[in-house]
Amino acid sequence: MHSAVYIPGDGIGPEVVDAAKRVVDATGVDVEWISADAGQSAIEAHGTTIPSETLDVIRRVRVALKGPFTNLPTGFPSPNQTLRTELELFGNLRLARAFAGVATPFQGIDLAVVRECTEGLFAGTEQMVGKDAAVVVRPTSRFACERVVRFAFDFAVQNNRKKVTVALKANILKLTDGMFLKAAREISTSYPNVQLQSVNIDALCMDLVRKPQEFDVLVMPNAYGDIVADIAGGLVGSLGLCPGGNYGENLAVFESAHGSAPKYAGQNKVNPTAMILSGAMMLRHLGEAKAAEKIENAARKVIAEGRSVTYDLGGKASTSEMTDAIIERLK
Questions:
Q1: What total number of domains does the chain contain?
Q2: Which residue range forms the structural domain that includes residue 198?
Q3: 295 contacts 283 by C-beta, under 8 angstroms
Q4: Handedness of CA 124, 129, 133, 138 (dihedral sign)
Q5: Whether residue 9 is found in the same domain as residue 62
Q6: 94: which strand partners?
Q7: Would the pLDDT of 67 be above 70?
């Protein structure tokens, strides 16, 4: 038996997390689900978006599946960033794969976007300078750069991928991005079967919308990676198809790439694919590769058929109906 924490999250989170749990359970893998609270929904009971009790249970269980969080405009820091920082989830991995049956100008896309999550602009180190100006500090350490680059190369080796592209602006930001680039070049020598490519982040964005099939694994600092992961989602037709995971040294938290979409909360209409595929990523992490592959294949078949898909994929199915169809395909 495996144990996993589940966090419903905000907005559409409870609906899609429930869908993912149902699909994981339908594979026959025995998972003990442990409920925990976080996000906007935790404020009333705990006075914070990330309660210490939730952090403690994730540290103990070491695996979690979470719904999206809503970022509040004032009063609370980003709950996603807080969770990653508190748990030292240094590597965020988002997958963007083309699906038959989804309208997109590109086919054959299979991108993995890795970003460093403990430092950089999203560390939240900003302050006002007087009344009319503000500054942000962008902390960058060699340790963090090396750690996330090594994670990207290890992912490439474990998944039979042949190229890692590091995307930066090292020609301008010579100390921070320069440190990241130097770390990538040095670490790449330990992976002779994986090609290292370095590009400027602006050039990468241009090439992604021209020839995305030429890229494989992408690794970069925090803010760049957040933007590029959304571009990758657009290339395959929707962020609703893109799963994700946050990895630390001894634990991992899995989540979809999309947000909480509060205007759709409780309507049973949103696409559950990204969260279901995040559940598949969780199973791979737990060593249940066959079950994960079954989920991925079932989701692909349902989407390709186009009969039981949600509105964003051109269908009329509800969240629960699409989930039912994927479960039926598992059988």
A1: 2
A2: 105-235
A3: yes
A4: negative
A5: yes
A6: 113, 244
A7: yes
> Which CATH number belongs to the domain containing residue 178 in this structure?
3.40.718.10
pLDDT in tens, 3-37: 999 999 999 999 999 999 999 999 999 999 999 99
Q: Examine the pLDDT at 104 and tell me if it is beyond 90.
A: no
Which of helix, strand or coil describes residue 304?
helix
C-alpha to C-alpha distances, 125 to 174, 190, 280, nearest whole angstrom: 20, 34, 35
How many Cα neighbours within 13 Å face the side chain of 151? 28
**Token code pair at residue 256:** 């979809």
Q: Is 128 helix (H, G, I), strand (E, B) or coil?
A: strand
The CA distance from 319 to 311, in Å, is 10
Report pLDDT for 219. Answer: 98
Question: Residue 14 is encoded by which pair of tokens?
Answer: 């409870």
Band (pLDDT 50/70/90 cuts) for residue 252 is very high
Burial of 301 (0-12, 13-18, 19+ CB in 10 A): middle
- For the cut 80, the answer to whether the pLDDT of residue 74 exceeds it is no
Chain-centroid distance, C-alpha 95:
7
Q: Does residue 55 surpass a pLDDT of 90? A: yes
Neighbours of 137 (CB within 10 A): 12
Other beta carbons within 10 angstroms of residue 136's beta carbon come to 12
